[in-house]
Amino acid sequence: MQTLKNKIKAYIRLTRFDKPTGLFLLLWPTLWALWLAAHGMPPFHILCIFVAGVIVMRPAGCIINDFADRHFDKQVVRTQDRPLATGEVKVWEAVILFVLLCGIGLILVLQLNLLTISLAVLALIVSSLYPFTKRFLSVPQLILGLGWYLAIPMAFAAVLDRVPLLGWLTYIAVVIWTLIFDTMYGLADKEDDAKVGIKSAALLFGKYVRFNLAVLEGIFLALLLIIGMLVQLSWFYYVAWTTALILSIYQQYLIKDFNPDSCISAFKNNHWLGLVMYFGIVFSI
């Protein structure tokens, strides 16, 4: 019985259900897109499919990431206790769990139209490639954003059976946001990543990382303003946007000394930014 409990705990850690920040970082923009596409409350069955899809596919992404990084994780202080790195979960177990989660995701997306299904297949391919791009691409976070957040054009496609300019604009904004928060996350590991040969934007930006992040945050926030104007959202959206601006400034404060714990806190703080903007959209349409 104790062995079973330990195995379940290891699976929970593998799928990051014990660390839900990443789940929320995928959920909030997906909900932004659904509400923007429907110009209000989306159809209930579509909402349920997308929420369930986030709950299923984010853990699948964590599994493929840890599968790709299992040898590197042993050499990084923050990740050396991950279940695949320690052997608590065998590779074949992780593969089976990944396939199972993807199967559930497939069943969910098959309830939607062909355009949404096509985008979902593309999202799975790009997201699965992301962990392996850390070996040769200086900004692998870009691939993460491009794959993860295909959920945004998927949401527009599911509601409208097309992806309008607003959908692509929202997608671009959130891909940039991914580059921001995942670079903050990467700052916590940059020394270890450099030693083991993992590439990241945190390493690429070097001593100019805060400046580059500030520029990206400016672009991201500007795109959110444009979205608000295009949809003609009410004043409440701009209150939310102002709160997001304050949170972005606070994140810059958190990473000022590049303390690993503070950088992780800055990364997690983006959950609140996403939530605030979700409420800003919901109460402004």
The helix/strand series, from N terminus to C terminus, equals HHHHHHHHHHHHHH
Query: Largest beta sheet, briefly?
Result: none
CATH C-level class is Mainly Alpha
Task: Identify the overall geometry.
Answer: globular
Distance between the termini: 52 Å
Q: What is Rg?
A: 19 Å
Q: Could you state the CATH homologous superfamily? A: UbiA prenyltransferase
Q: How many beta-strand elements?
A: 0
Query: Hey, roughly how much beta strand do the residues contain?
Result: under 5%
Quickly give the structural class: mainly alpha
Give a quick rundown of the structure:
The protein has helices at 2-14, 21-38, 44-73, 83-86, 91-109, 114-133, 140-148, 151-160, 165-187, 190-196, 201-205, 209-231, 235-254, 260-282.
Report on this model:
It is a single chain. This protein is an all-alpha fold. The protein contains 14 helices and no strands. It has helices spanning 2-14, 21-38, 44-73, 83-86, 91-109, 114-133, 140-148, 151-160, 165-187, 190-196, 201-205, 209-231, 235-254, 260-282. The termini are far apart.
